[in-house]
User: Which sequence fits this backbone?
């Protein structure tokens, strides 16, 4: 019987990554965006968790973060009656997490175990994402060695490890972005009614998780435009395409706007919470905010806090502050690899699906820049807002691996990637 080395290595990577995440979950306290009552190192007693589970302790508007949202749904079994704090977010992720908390509530667990148990939602999200990524990489027609490299990078990339412990909605919207790309590739090849409905559901549920998923409208729009150009001379096919566009728009818009419309009708208001004033970095000079000083990234000194790029790299890579120099040094090599791919290969890609991946990456990255121009705060440069770009960067690194013909260089490349994953993982232990 022939041994499939690729599948054995893939299963090994997945098994170790799941096991490692369980260790991270058990080691790291649950994270709320504002970290109110749930700070790292605190709470340290069951009584502190009892307090965190009391809705009356969240009267301050700024304290109504992601954990409060989950807790409100868990206790009241209805949507929130205001849009204070983080309550402006669409409810899908919070409904899922509150339902999971209700499930945990059926067991003889104390409040600490229930709250910490919410992190297993992040593990479930990770496992779902692995299935989608597996199918997506097959669609991109990558070699097995590249797929393994991408799975390795994704499984042990710091931001994706950290996201397991977060209560925010960013991981779920990342899953819907992945699913949207996968279905869009299928739709591009076969724009059937089934693929159209699946695409509209993926896009709509993404927006029902977080409104920044709307950026996926750009890659969807470019694919639709391409189909219109292809079928413009065939009246029958054009009419079928228009029907599918109407179906996509109807389902997608309904799912995307239902929460916003509900707030405007029931609550008579809808507003997005502004970050705290102390997080404002718009008073920094243009260079301090947008210049790329890799020395400052490694040191992450006082001035670095106001730099968008350093903040992005830091939040995506560093968990243990003491290891920032090691991580920063090897990340510079990874960034050079990415730079080589973009300069030499990215815009020469002949594979249509890879072109779509590249276009999606550019759209999402530009939206991140615009977001930070409009809202220059320390919280807005957090890498969790563009998880999809970080994953697609892993895909580009995998693609670059295929371009290396020299055996020694390929070994060095794999060693650097492996070392990066190892160092990044050790910081969580």
Assistant:
């Amino acid at each position: 019987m022939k041994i499939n080395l690729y599948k054995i290595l893939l299963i090994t990577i997945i098994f170790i990554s799941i096991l490692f995440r369980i260790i991270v979950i058990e080691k790291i306290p649950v994270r709320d965006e504002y970290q109110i009552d749930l700070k790292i190192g605190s709470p340290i007693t069951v009584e502190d968790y009892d307090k965190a589970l009391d809705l009356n302790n969240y009267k301050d508007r700024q304290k109504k973060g992601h954990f409060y949202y989950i807790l409100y749904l868990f206790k009241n079994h209805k949507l929130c009656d205001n849009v204070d704090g983080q309550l402006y977010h669409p409810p899908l992720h919070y409904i899922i997490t509150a339902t999971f908390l209700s499930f945990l509530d059926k067991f003889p667990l104390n409040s600490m175990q229930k709250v910490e148990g919410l992190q297993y939602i992040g593990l479930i999200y990770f496992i779902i994402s692995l299935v989608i990524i597996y199918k997506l990489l097959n669609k991109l027609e990558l070699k097995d060695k590249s797929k393994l490299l991408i799975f390795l990078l994704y499984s042990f990339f710091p931001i994706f490890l950290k996201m397991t412990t977060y209560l925010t909605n960013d991981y779920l919207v990342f899953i819907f972005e992945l699913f949207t790309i996968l279905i869009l590739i299928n739709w591009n090849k076969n724009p059937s009614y089934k693929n159209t409905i699946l695409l509209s559901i993926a896009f709509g549920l993404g927006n029902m998780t977080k409104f920044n998923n709307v950026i996926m409208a750009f890659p969807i729009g470019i694919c639709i435009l391409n189909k219109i150009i292809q079928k413009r001379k065939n009246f029958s096919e054009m009419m079928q395409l228009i029907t599918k566009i109407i179906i996509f728009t109807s389902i997608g818009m309904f799912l995307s706007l239902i929460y916003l419309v509900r707030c405007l009708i029931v609550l008579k208001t809808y507003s997005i919470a502004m970050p705290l004033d102390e997080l404002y970095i718009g008073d920094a000079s243009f260079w301090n905010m947008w210049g790329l000083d890799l020395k400052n990234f490694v040191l992450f000194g006082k001035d670095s806090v106001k730099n968008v790029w350093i903040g992005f790299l830091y939040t995506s890579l560093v968990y243990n502050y003491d290891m920032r120099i090691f991580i920063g040094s090897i990340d510079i090599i990874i960034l050079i690899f990415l730079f080589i791919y973009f300069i030499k290969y990215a815009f020469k890609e002949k594979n249509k699906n890879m072109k779509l991946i590249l276009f999606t990456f550019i759209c999402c990255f530009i939206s991140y820049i615009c977001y930070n121009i409009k809202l220059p705060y320390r919280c807005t440069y957090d890498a969790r807002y563009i998880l999809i770009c970080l994953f697609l960067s892993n895909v580009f690194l995998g693609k670059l691996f295929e371009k290396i013909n020299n055996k020694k260089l390929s070994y060095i490349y794999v060693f650097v990637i492996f070392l990066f994953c190892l160092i990044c993982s050790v910081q969580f232990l």
In short: Residues 33-43 have pLDDT under 50 and may be disordered.
